[in-house]
User: Fold Copper homeostasis protein cutC homolog from Streptomyces dysideae.
Amino acid sequence: MSKRAVLEVIALDVEDAVAAQAGGADRLELVTDMAADGLTPAVGTFAGIRAAVDISLRVMLRLEGGFAAGDVERLVGVAREMRDAGADEFVLGFLDVDGAVDLRAVERAVGELGGCRWTFHRAIDHAADRDALRKQLDGLPGLDTYLTAGAAGGVDDGLGVLLAEAARSGEPGYEQRILVGGGLRLEHVPVLLDAGIDGFHIGGAARPGGWGESVSVEAVAAWRRMLDGGEGGDGG
Assistant:
């Protein structure tokens, strides 16, 4: 485990980004439209956030809700626009109708990223076979993280899976960082850290007032303290 656990916060705009960085976030996931579980933001939004903060930004590549790739060529075009604007880290993940990884769509998108680092997001929690998905993606350039709750229902349901996958760290398909997100609460953190997991992703937990409110510096700081070995506040 690294000396400092990574804290990633979902940011919708510049105000979110500035607050998250002030609270101690290491990285932001940039999205829009949380009603659709997070879609690709506008290039202008990315540019504004990039100018406002100096931490890592991972840009969501998803044009519609769910886990189908949709129009792959349009997706590739959006990825190209983001790369041209300076984006160099991404988040993506596509499944086919049978719940298997849509390898053609993933490879097509990744091919446009030029080796940039990227996260395969919570599509893994809806896959028919997590282990098969990991092994099919093994070796794709830039893949360094899986964002996962361990189960579609969230961390409460998936904790055992997360711990089992952490124990396989270093095996083929299990070399990437586990970034835990989806129903994550502060009380989950100690057992996850003890298992060697060093990546944590929060969205609603950074907004005590709900998704209609901006990121709270204080809420993010509570997570930072917990990850650094101190005490946090309320999760969510």
User: Anything to note?
Assistant: The domain at 6-227 is CATH 3.20.20.380 (TIM Barrel). The first helix runs from residue 14 to 23.
